[in-house]
Structure formats: structure tokens, C-alpha cells
Specification:
Ent-copalyl diphosphate synthase-like protein; Terpene_synthase-like; 3 helices; 0% strand; mainly alpha; single chain; terpene synthase activity
Amino acid sequence: MLAYPDYGGENDVWIGKTLYRMPYMANDVYLELAKLDYNNCQAMHYDEWKEEIQSKESMLLAYHVAATSIFEPERSLERLAWAKTTTLLQILESNFKDKETRKGL
């Protein structure tokens, strides 16, 4: 049960602006939990960012591998097709690995 029934509700956005005035809600426990949640969220975004950078590097590597094998200028569409296919296969492979990992949990 809420200590302040007149305040809040699931659709009230402004409640966050007034929490500091409520002694039962504005305490160090909530502040510490908010900091932990923020740090957790920040770490999750950092991991996603690292994965995105690695995927860009893998796309570049796929194109360079294609360029070493198909180096003629008139075959540029084949190089792009090779790189796109390799990238698509890597995405599918990582998706299947994620599903297998989730099943194991």
C-alpha cells in the first residue's frame, strides 16, 4: 500500500519530480538502487556497443577477404555480394547460438 495514496499511479510521470519531498520514498535505499540500476543499464549499453563495433569490423574483414579473392574492378558486385552473404551468415549463426544458450538456461 502506498504511504501517499493521493500521489502517483502508473500513468503519472510527474511523480518522479516530487519524490524528494516524500520522506518515506526519498531515502538512501532508493537512491542506491537507482545508482545500481543506472550502472547496470550503462554496462548493458556498453556491451551492446562493443558487439556493434565488432560486427562492423567483421563486415570490413568479410569485404577484404572477398577483395583478396575477387580483385578485378569489374567484379565489384560479386565482392559486395560475398561480403553481404558472409555478414548474413554471421548474423544467423549468432542468432542460433543465442537461442541454444537460452534453451540451456
